[in-house]
């Protein structure tokens, strides 16, 4: 990763962000609010994966957001694209290598709770890995035994909750369950999800959380709710629904993020 890290440092030109954001569906437009942006295509960074999912641009955008130096990752690689749970490992490793200490992840997810409707935002407090895989498969060192008890940093979660309250935006809290995808869950699987204690389901984020903890980063994550899960409405699910609904919750989450950075809640 040295070549990718060196290229990032050179392109950043002295900018030294400590916070990075991975922008999921509905949040891609946030890069347009970065002041004096430095844009770097994933294709120009050795080891960075190129996403084949619509709505995931595949570029690094760095600059000041709400007055704070940040680095945004517009797009991610998903396990279902490559069959590789560690597809984002080079990205997370490079972030750690340039001095990022806090990683904020966002995604689009389906709600399992009838009162958490499309357009809502959920703060992830914990997750269930139901994929049967792990991005640390094959890691030869004992560092692979990563503790996940406090995977979602309490301080970062408190900052997001305070920002949501300040902006008068409801921020639901719950457990996210990772399915491998790309097919959506069945109604029977969603009934199982409820029994196991999850509140939302999706096809990303968990590998990045595991990798971030492996590389020593503090992590927080939020889901933009784009649909009620399979069997809850009787309608079939589709990626078009995800793309159509993501901007609604995305706008709410963007307001929370801007408030958090502008008010300095993350530094408290």
Automatic annotation (TrEMBL):
A purine D-ribonucleoside binds at residues 185, 227. Its EC number is 2.4.2.1. This is Purine nucleoside phosphorylase. The keyword Glycosyltransferase applies. Phosphate binds at residues 25, 56, 76-78, 108, 204. The keyword Oxidoreductase does not apply. It comes from the Bacteria. Transmembrane segments: none annotated. Signal peptide: none annotated. Keywords: Glycosyltransferase, Transferase. One of its GO terms (molecular function) is purine-nucleoside phosphorylase activity. Belongs to the PNP/MTAP phosphorylase family. Homotrimer.
